[in-house]
Design goal:
There is one protein chain. Helix content is 25%, strand content 18%. It is an alpha/beta fold and 259 residues long.
């Protein structure tokens, strides 16, 4: 005999609604589920990766991702809580990593460069496939940033975020806000090109690599300890400073042009 479909009521809260079709956003809706299974499978079948979820209430009781959905369940799904203490409940998201490090998918190269500019360890290559990204995230304890929701649905991934915006400045603000990074910025300490660390270097050691105008007008330099790229406080530095100011001051109508 065929199994009767389950009928449940669901409501998603706050930014989780970004991941739902318009008719399911910010309302309670009825969903018919073809077979019994875990609540993780149910919410991910609706397009919401488990890494986005901090709390699920079923009939008013907090449950974990292994809970088996029952006919008639009333389900409320919540994102991360920044200020509300929910410690007595079953918090689903693992504790934040103390030293946030990232790995990014192939669509987020500019975001990777911006995170490095702020001083964060951001691993990126445009040829990483999904299994490689998932493996790096788990093995190196890196937060996976991606534009691919299905990648975040892999069971082994514990720390990840679906980047909503397609504009690099807005992507950066999203990540800084989501992971509360404003107090962890170490601007210009990391190479935007390769993710290495920038160390002070004497001008005499690199002056034969400088263009005449730079050699004549700049005295303070840094050099990546990995790729040997040279940095100084020129026009690009000033543009990056404006971007950092925009991030730390809060939203403005238009982000600065950072090149």
């Amino acid at each position: 005999m065929a199994t009767q479909p389950l009928q449940v009521s669901l409501r998603f809260y706050e930014e989780l609604n970004d991941l739902l079709p318009a008719e399911k956003q910010k309302v309670e809706f009825v969903h018919r589920y073809k077979q019994t299974g875990s609540i993780k499978d149910l919410v991910e079948s609706l397009g919401v990766p488990h890494t986005e979820i901090d709390l699920i209430l079923v009939n008013g009781r907090s449950v974990d991702f292994h809970y088996q959905v029952q006919d008639g369940d009333q389900i409320s799904v919540y994102p991360v809580f920044e200020s509300l203490d929910i410690s007595p409940l079953t918090r689903l998201r693992p504790r934040p990593l103390r030293d946030p490090r990232f790995v990014l998918d192939g669509h987020l190269g500019r975001l990777a460069a911006y995170l490095r500019m702020l001083g964060f360890d951001a691993l990126y290559r445009n040829d990483y496939d999904d299994p490689t990204l998932a493996g790096i995230s788990v093995e190196q304890r890196r937060i996976l940033l991606t534009c691919d929701r299905k990648l975040l649905m892999r069971k082994q991934i514990t720390h990840g975020y679906f980047v909503r915006s397609r504009q690099p400045h807005e992507q950066l603000r999203e990540v800084v806000t989501r992971f509360d990074l404003r107090n962890n910025l170490r601007p210009f300490s990391r190479c935007m090109h390769c993710n290495g660390m920038i160390r002070p270097v004497a001008k005499a050691l690199i002056q034969d690599q400088l263009l005449p105008h730079t050699r004549a007008h700049q005295e303070v330099f840094g050099q990546c300890d990995r790729c040997r790229k040279i940095y100084w406080k020129g026009t690009h530095y000033q543009q990056m400073q404006r971007l950092i100011g925009w991030l730390t001051a809060g939203p403005v109508p238009h982000p600065p042009d950072s090149g």
